[in-house]
Amino acid sequence: MSRAFNFNAGPAALPEVVLLEAQKHLLNFNGTGMSVMELSHRSKDYEEVHNSAQSQLRKLLQIPDNYEILFVQGGASLQFSMVPMNLLSEDKTGYYVLTGAWSEKALKEAQKVGNTKILASTKEENYRSIPQLDLDLLQEDAAYLHITSNNTIYGTQWQSFPDLKVPLIADMSSDILSRPLDISKFGLIYAGAQKNLGPSGVTVVIVKKDLISEPLDHLPTMLNYQTFSKNNSLYNTPPTFAIYLLKLVLDWVENEGGLAALERKNIEKAKYLYDAIDESDGFFKGHASKESRSNMNVTFTLPTEDDTKNFLDAAKKQGFIGLNGHRSVGGCRASIYNAVPLEHVQRLAEFMKTYR
Ligand SMILES: *Cc1c(COP(=O)(O)O)cnc(C)c1O
User: Active-site residue among 44, 45, 65, 102?
Assistant: First the structure.
């Protein structure tokens, strides 16, 4: 059976070699006679997987020593709550930039925890772009500024990040590892794994140590970052198989040449689709404004809703999976994360031209 042309937004395509590697060792990992799923999370064999996932991530993203790497469950959605619970004290304000549905949700959870302010928003233009920031509006009381680096639903992406005096917090669920990153600009980064890192079930949190140095004993144990940092994310049973697949994906990224190489490939892939849009005489219309376009999620519509529906039907018949836009915006969306092969993207671009 051949592999699908998978443009799903998440869970999304995984590298074929990763799946084959996992398959090869599924019944007998490392001579244990067990699957990774069946190992004790306290065993040496598992611990090696766990620690090498962390060290691979540290190497690829060049994460400095004063940052912790945590493996948490509950998805990026739980981070919407954990960030303010851990970092937003009573006398402070959490600032948010609204660039789409996920940042709205992050704000909504923070509002349940403490004081919040919206620093900037592009909601009025249906989140077509990333706003300019007026950093003077970030006042003394700021605990942090929260952004969503890639807006999975609208197809926009921050092209650069501001230098701040307060911690910059980023939801990078849909573009982590898609390009090199200066970690030192951030106080905390989080990402659910199921777009660019692996399967669902594990969320990676990269956090500057000094931000989580206070005890915060009033917090539920499992909602306190310190529980994870003090116990190497092994306070309770971690999602061992998801972390194993994460490790395999990280090995794959290294084999691909690391983040600079992946960025080049991602730019090339995205260009095929944006060219198909831009050279269509308006037949395909991109949702994102050009300067904010995402290299991970390409969003577009056709002249009418009927046209869009017909295009999606025809694409499905050709074997293209997952091209429907998110239910909240409609239209079409091609998610072209790291693991989506160039050839699949080229085929889609060809199909778009032929269809037109
Ligand atoms: C997918 C996604 C989420 C939600 O992630 P869960 O792991 O399902 O909670 C949050 N933020 C962004 C940017 C996403 O793409």
Answer: 102
Over residues 88-105, the pLDDT tens digits come to 999 999 999 999 999 999
- Catalytic residue from among 158, 175, 195, 208: 195
**Centre of ligand 1 from the C-alpha of residue 135, in Å:** 26
Which are the contacts of 134, defined by CB distance < 8 A and separation ≥ 6? 119, 120
Residue of 324, 251, 299 whose CA lies nearest to 15: 251
Cβ pair 186, 160 in contact under 8 A: no
Q: Look up residue 219 and give its two tokens.
A: 């917090």
For residues 202-231, b (16+ Cβ closer than 10 Å) or e, as one string? bbbbbbbeebbeeebeeeeeeebbbbbbee
Binding site for L-glutamate: what residues are annotated? 42
- Say which residues have a Cβ less than 8 Å from residue 33's Cβ, sequence separation at least 6: none
Nearest atom of ligand 1 to the alpha carbon of 194: 7
Closest-CA residue, ligand 1 atom 3, reads 76
The residue type of 338 is N
User: Which residues sit opposite 72 in a β-bridge?
Assistant: 203
The encoded tokens of residue 246 equal: 């994460």
Q: Per the omega criterion (within 30 degrees of 0), is the bond before 11 cis?
A: yes
Edge-to-edge order in the sheet of strand 285-286 = 285-286, 297-301, 332-335
Domains and CATH numbers, the chain: 17-255 (3.40.640.10), 258-355 (3.90.1150.10)
**Mean local confidence (pLDDT), 215-225:** 96
Q: Is pTM, for the whole model, over 0.85?
A: yes
Nearest CA to ligand 1 atom 2: 173
| 134 catalytic per annotation | no
